[in-house]
Design brief:
Helix content is 28%, strand content 21%. Helix 15 packs antiparallel against helix 16 (607-624). Strands 1, 4, 5, 6, 7, 8, 9, 10 and 11 form a nine-stranded mixed β-sheet that branches. The chain is α+β, with helices and mostly antiparallel strands. It folds into three domains: 23-52 and 96-258, Phosphoenolpyruvate Carboxykinase, domain 1; 262-330 and 419-624, Phosphoenolpyruvate Carboxykinase, domain 3 (Alpha-Beta Complex), CATH 3.90.228.20; 333-405, Phosphoenolpyruvate Carboxykinase, domain 2. The longest helix is centred in the last third of the chain and has 18 residues, at 607-624.
C-alpha cells in the first residue's frame, strides 16, 4: 500500500479547551437574515452561550479537546493513529432512523407512499414543544457551510445550529464549513436553515453524560420552505444535516424545481491503458459497496481508478450540453465493518490519521479495529460499548454500522478534478443492489428510458446501515428510497424529463445495472468482486468506445461470449454461466413484484415506466414460448 504524504499535524495542548463556552467574536459581522434567525432560535432554545463557527484549524482543535474533556471521544495512540479519535454513541443512537424521518407537505400525495408524511402545521406545533428550552445549559453552535466547491455553479449553502460539538467537527469534515461559506451567504447566496438539538438540556449543576441524546427523535424536512429540523439524535446523518437531509432530501426537491439531479451516487474517474479518462456515476443502497467501488484498486494491469465521491452526486446539464456532476461533500462518512486491507486498501490508507471513528473497537495499544479490517481479530479488544471483548464472545466488537469520518483530500486515490467547480462530464450511469439471485453481473439498458426503469426497480437485501430486517429484500429505487424528498413517482418523472432534455444535448450517457453479489447453489458468491469489478467497468467502457460486443436479452444487453475479460480468474464455466443466467420464469415473478410496487404510486406513476414493464413481460413470455 502506498501512503500519501502526511501533512503537519496539530498537537494536543491543555489551553483553550472551553471553546463551547465562548460567544461570537466582536470583530466579526454576520448576515442580517442569519442573525435574525439565530436570535429567534436563542429565545426559543435557550442555550447558555452562542458560538459562531469560523471553520479554523484552531477552532477544530479546541472542539476536539473539549470533546475529550467531556468524555465523548478519546484520543487514540498518536504513534499509531496520529490525531485521531474514537467516539462511542449511546446504544440507542446507532443508525439512520427512517421511521422517525418525516416529509411535511400540505398534500400527503406530494410526499408519496415511500415517505413518512406529516401535516406541516401539526408538525411545527410538535417540534415547537420538544425544542422549547432544549439547549439549556449547552452552547449553541452556529455552523455555516457550503455543499460543493465554493465558486461552482452548483454550490449550495446552509446554516445549521447544533448543541453537539461532535456534530460540529463532523460537519467540518463533511462540508466546506466556516467563514468562507458565511461570506457567500452575506453576498446574497440563498441558504437552507437546519436546526439540531440532542434534546438533553442541563439543569444548573447537573453532570453531563458522554453522549447526550433523547429517546424521542425527529428528523424533519419541510421541502416547501427548505427547512430541516432534527431532535434527539447525535448520530450520523440524523444530526449531520448537511448530509442526507440536505444533500438528498431537500436537494432533490431543489433539483426538481431547478432542473438538475441530487442523487445517492458515487463518482469515479476511470483511465484505461489508452490514457483517455471516463467518469462514471453509480447508485447503490447504503453499505452495498459504494465506498469500495469509489476507492477501487483495479486488478487489471495499466488501469487506474480515482475517487471523486463515495456517496452523493449532484448532476446537471452544463453549458456545453453534457451531463456534469460534482461531489457536494468534502469528506467520507464510511461504514467501517467490511472495510479492510483486502477489500479496500485505499480506504485503510486514508484513515492513517486525522480521523474520527465512531462505534468501532479499540485495541489494547490504543488503535482501532473492526470486523473485516483484518482476517483475524486481536486477542483482546474494548468493544464499541466500552466493554472487554475477546474472539468467540458471541458479539461483534464493532457495531455493524460503525463509521469513520475523514477528509476526502486524505484519500490516496482522490482525483485531481474531484473538486473542479465546473464538475466532471459523466459518460455512464450505473445502478446496483445486493441480490443473491436473478439479477446478472452486468446488463446494459437499451436507452435512457429503459435505464430509468432499471433505476426505478432496484431491489436490494437490507444491511445494517438502515432500519429493517437484515437480509430482507426491498425495492430501493435509484438507492433513494429513504432520501427522495417528494413523491417518488414524480421523481421518476423528473428523471424521464431530464432525459428528454439530455437527448437534445451533445450525448446521453449509457446506463448499466450491476450485481456483484449473486450466489451459487452452495451460498457462496460467484464473482470475486472488489478489484476484479474493474473487469466489468472495462466491458462498459468498451461499450462506450465500440470495442466490446453484447447480446440482446429480454432484460437488456449482456456481454457477448468472450467480451468480458475473465483471464486469470479462478472462475469455472458453470459459475460464469450462472452469473449471466436470465431465468424467464423467475424474472416474471420479479415483474409481478415490480407491478405491485408501481401500483403503490397510483395514477402518479409515469406511463412510460408502466410501458417498460409491459415490454419486459412480453419479452420474457416470448422466451418461454
Amino acid at each position: 500500500m502506498t501512503l500519501i504524504d502526511r501533512p503537519a499535524l496539530a498537537t494536543t495542548t491543555d489551553s483553550e479547551t472551553e471553546v463551547g463556552a465562548t460567544a461570537a467574536r466582536a470583530d466579526r459581522s454576520y448576515p442580517a437574515e442569519v442573525s435574525t434567525w439565530v436570535d429567534g432560535l436563542v429565545e426559543h432554545l435557550q442555550p447558555a452561550a452562542v458560538h459562531w463557527v469560523d471553520g479554523s484549524t484552531r477552532e477544530r482543535h479546541d472542539l476536539l479537546q473539549l470533546l475529550v474533556t467531556n468524555g465523548t471521544i478519546e484520543q487514540l495512540n498518536p504513534d499509531l493513529r496520529p490525531y485521531s479519535f474514537l467516539a462511542r454513541s449511546a446504544e440507542s443512537d446507532v443508525a439512520r432512523l427512517e421511521s422517525r424521518t418525516f416529509i411535511c407537505t400540505d398534500d400527503p400525495a406530494d410526499a408519496g407512499p415511500t415517505n413518512n408524511w406529516r401535516e406541516p402545521a401539526a408538525m411545527r406545533a410538535e417540534l415547537d414543544e420538544v425544542f422549547r428550552g432544549s439547549m439549556r445549559g449547552r452552547t449553541m453552535y452556529v455552523v455555516p457551510f457550503a455543499m460543493g466547491p465554493i465558486g461552482s455553479p452548483m454550490a449550495r449553502f446552509g446554516v445549521q445550529v447544533t448543541d453537539s460539538p461532535y456534530v460540529v467537527v463532523s460537519i467540518g469534515t463533511m462540508t466546506r464549513m466556516g467563514d468562507a461559506a458565511l461570506a457567500a451567504i452575506a453576498r446574497g447566496a440563498s441558504w437552507v436553515p437546519a436546526v439540531h438539538s440532542v434534546g438533553a438540556p442541563l439543569a444548573p449543576g447537573e453532570t453531563d453524560v458522554p453522549w447526550p441524546c433523547n429517546d424521542t427523535k425527529y428528523i424533519v424536512q419541510f421541502p416547501a420552505t427548505r427547512e430541516i429540523w432534527s431532535y434527539g439524535s447525535a448520530y450520523g446523518g440524523n444530526a449531520i444535516l448537511a448530509k442526507k437531509a440536505y444533500a438528498l432530501r431537500i436537494a432533490s426537491v431543489m433539483a426538481r424545481d431547478e432542473g438538475w439531479l441530487a442523487e445517492h451516487m458515487l463518482l469515479i474517474k476511470v483511465t484505461p491503458p489508452s490514457g483517455r479518462s471516463y467518469h462514471l456515476a453509480a447508485a447503490f443502497p447504503s453499505a452495498c459497496g459504494k465506498t469500495n467501488m469509489a476507492m477501487m484498486t483495479p486488478n487489471l494491469p495499466g488501469w487506474k481508478i480515482e475517487t471523486i465521491g463515495d456517496d452523493i452526486a449532484w448532476l446537471w446539464i452544463g453549458s456545453d450540453g453534457r451531463l456534469r456532476a460534482i461531489n457536494p461533500e468534502a469528506g467520507f462518512f464510511g461504514v467501517a465493518p467490511g472495510t479492510g486491507v483486502r477489500t479496500n486498501p485505499t480506504a485503510v490508507d486514508a484513515l492513517w490519521g486525522n480521523t474520527i471513528f465512531t462505534n468501532v473497537a479499540r485495541t489494547d495499544d490504543g488503535d482501532v479495529w473492526w470486523e473485516g479490517l483484518s482476517d483475524d481479530a486481536p486477542a483482546h479488544l474494548t468493544d464499541w460499548r466500552g466493554e472487554s471483548w475477546t474472539p468467540g464472545s458471541g458479539t461483534t466488537a464493532a457495531h455493524p454500522n460503525a463509521r469513520f469520518t475523514v477528509s476526502a483530500r486524505q484519500c490516496p486515490s482522490i482525483a485531481d478534478d474531484w473538486d473542479d467547480p465546473a464538475g466532471v462530464v459523466i459518460d455512464a450511469i450505473i445502478f446496483g443492489g445486493r441480490r443473491a439471485s436473478n439479477v446478472p453481473l452486468v446488463v446494459e439498458a437499451r436507452d435512457w428510458d429503459h435505464g430509468v426503469f432499471m433505476g426505478a426497480t432496484i431491489a436490494s437485501e437490507q444491511t445494517a446501515a438502515a432500519e429493517g430486517t437484515v437480509g430482507e429484500l426491498r425495492r430501493d429505487p435509484f438507492a433513494m428510497l429513504p432520501f427522495a424528498g417528494y413523491n417518488m413517482a414524480d421523481y421518476f418523472g423528473h428523471w424521464l424529463d431530464f432525459g428528454r432534455r439530455l437527448r437534445r444535448s451533445a450525448r446521453v450517457p449509457r446506463v448499466f445495472q450491476v450485481n456483484w453479489f449473486r450466489k451459487g447453489a452452495d451460498g457462496s458468491f460467484l464473482w470475486p468482486g472488489f478489484g476484479d469489478n474493474a473487469r466489468v467497468l472495462e466491458w462498459m467502457i468498451g461499450r462506450l468506445d465500440g470495442t466490446r460486443t453484447a447480446v440482446d436479452t429480454p432484460i437488456g444487453s449482456l456481454p457477448a461470449a468472450g467480451a468480458l475479460n475473465v483471464e486469470g480468474l479462478d472462475l469455472d464455466a458453470d459459475a460464469l454461466t450462472e452469473l449471466f443466467r436470465v431465468d424467464p420464469e423467475a424474472f416474471l415473478h420479479e415483474v409481478d413484484d415490480i407491478e405491485s410496487f408501481f401500483a403503490t404510486f397510483g395514477d402518479r406513476m409515469p406511463s412510460e415506466l408502466s410501458r417498460q414493464l409491459d415490454l419486459l413481460r412480453t419479452r420474457l413470455q416470448a422466451e418461454l414460448g
